[in-house]
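Lecture notes, structural biology module. Today: joint structure prediction for complexes of two components.
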Amino acid sequence: MRPTRRFWTLAVLALGWLALSVLLAEPLLLAVPLGITGWLLAHQLSFARRVARLADARTTRFSQSVSPGTVVVGNATRLAVEYDPPAGSDDELVLSLPDPPSVTREGAQEHRLDALDSGTQRIEAPLRVDVAGEFEVPEPMLSVRSAHGLFETAIRVGSPVTVTAEPRAPRDVHVGAGGQRISVAAGEHRAEHGVSGFEPGELREYLPGDPTNRIDWKATARLGEPYVRDVEAETTRGTRVIVDCRPQMLDGPDGRTKLDFAREVAVWLTELAASHGDPLSVALVHEGAVEEAETPATTSREYRRERSRLHDLRSADPDSAAAATRHDRTANAARATGPATEGVSVSAAEVTGSDAFAETLRPYVADLEAHVERVSNRPLFRAVADADAAAWTVLVTDDSNREALLEAVRAAAGDGSRVSVFILPSALFVPDALIDLDAAYHEYVDFEEYRQRLDAVGGATAFELGPGDRLASVVDAAARARHRE
Amino acid sequence: MNAEIPYPSGRDHPVRAVVSTGAVLVVAASLVLLGGVTGLAFALGTAVLFALAPPVFPFALGQTGLVAVASPGLPPVAWAGQTALLAVLLVDERLQWSWSTAALSAAAVGAVSLAARLAARQSRSLPAAVVVAGSAVAFYAVHRYEVVRTGNVETT
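The predicted structure, tokenised, for the full assembly:
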């Protein structure tokens, strides 16, 4: 309990009268400070009892809750405090909402409670959690000020609640083929290309025929017998990771969109390249543009830069997600699957004349050019076309535009370089994908056929990438259906 | 908290309003009867403070006036005024009285008064010191009761 300025004003007045009674030698004037003291004491006692009663009812009159209790980092949850105001009180009551660390509360912090309100009242405020983890939101603070404004105090009311923020990263990342998880072999690579240096290897006994310049003289002196140290050639292989960031990659629940899965794989590839010291380029494909650093990453600072770019990947404008290209089997099946247009030397402008031959030929040539123009203007194709022939090209994208992807993979693998493709099946990311498991399974089978077509391209390896739990549900449902048959 | 509670400008509890208003009238009448023009001045001041400020202010002015006009000694009219002043102080509609609150407050004030009276035999200034010390102890005791009873730490 804390006395306010009014209390001290009255205390000073009482002291003044006390001094006056001493100066004037008037004992009756002592009645003034004694009266003031008695009055203040009565108010203080009465206030202390009321506050004690409020404290006794701190969990019954006040309750705090948060809904939902688990959110994805950056998303908002709602803090609610319900209270039953004490009737017939002249005290001023102010409820202060808590401000826990790493949690941003929006709206006003202090709320004045009106004792005249009848029934349960409710105060709400949005909470935004900026860091993943579990956070305790402490009880709100109730500040009480007595009638006449003589004393004030504060007590905690209600009970603490816990908010859990899950990271914006999918937990069950499935990489596989045909519904089966596989290990993606990405260890040391053969020295098929230039050797940049040598690093010391294991120590072993000298054998006849070993070059004498490899004898480790320190070890020989220490052990008393000749020992040689093997060397390993250091090789570097450029890695180019191309991540599709276009609007169709936003499909899926918050925190588990296609882009979230793509980011997990891209970050893993980045760390792999960093562990081997391989030059790394990360190209982010947006609608109509490709974003890439000017030089590949070769130092730890540059690898961190690329990782940071991937972690900072945010979805495109949410409004554009509504117009994003959705998985459409009809559209994919209807697209032409002709080969690349290499060797075509006839253009529509050259097909002149009005004879029957020209009239018949012109639509085919015009369509071919339009096909070339469409393909070459697509950013994914452009990104692949910029790849170094000696590099390992990794594409992380979805199957929204299957023919364009097939063309891009063929173009990338065409010059003999290695291409790995991680494809996200759109069928697993549509809302309510698991309501009709039969349809979902057929969609997945269609995707698997397409993946195998990509895998069959020389120099290319295609993996499926997606939520393991959803894929398992689809595959299990199909297995149960076959079992019933 | 930034909000300021204004001093009450009226009396909203009817019985208490009647009693306290009657008490102020008795005080004013005592002052006028005992002090003439001086008493009238004190009476008017007391009435104005009664209308605009908490009861402790009209009590202080009224008591001072009573001492000023009635000294030395207190005739019966002065005792009536003194009693009425106590009523003005105690009939506070913002004070939620209970028997225990009244008893404890009266006991504390009585103890301090007794100590002051005993100290007056020793010297003139000792009663003042006794009143200050006794009041401080009483306030601190209630403060500790509140802290222990609520079990909470205050915020600043």
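Point to remember: The CA atoms of residues 4 and 53 of chain B lie 14 Å apart.
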